[in-house]
Amino acid sequence: MNAFTMKNWEENVVSGSEGGPRVAYAHASMAYEGVIEGESVCDLLLYYAGEGYDSGTTTSPSLERFDGKVDGREGTFIVRHEFTFDAKGIASTFTVVPGSGTGALAGLTGTGTVGGAMGEEKMGYTFEYTI
Known about the structure:
This protein is mostly beta strands. Helices cover 0% and strands 68% of the residues. The chain is built from no helices and 8 strands. The protein has strands at residues 3-16, 22-33, 36-48, 60-70, 73-85, 89-96, 109-117, 122-130. An 8-stranded antiparallel barrel has the order 1-2-3-4-5-6-7-8. A hairpin with a 5-residue loop joins strand 1 and strand 2. The radius of gyration is 15 Å and the shape is elongated. The model has no long low-confidence stretch (mean pLDDT 93).
């Protein structure tokens, strides 16, 4: 199963107010298992449409740097996400940033999805790639 576990999440509102539309910055780290094995660090720019944790129909961008293995090949690479979220869960589509692969992952290209329910220990992902 392709899954990840959140290891750390630090979030701060950078503009707006808690009860209304606002922008926040989050820094997170995750542990991955499945086709991607290793750890990542992710920086997110989050838009909250109003009270609570709903992005509405707007997507929030982020960059995530992986350090580990893809299908047994070791190296690093970066993906760009577009997240949507609400109190129930998250969903994202992502694309490998061209030229970001290092080591045995040099030349990596690919796309994928992330999704899961808030509060779950693990969330799932898909990843279609070529090296």
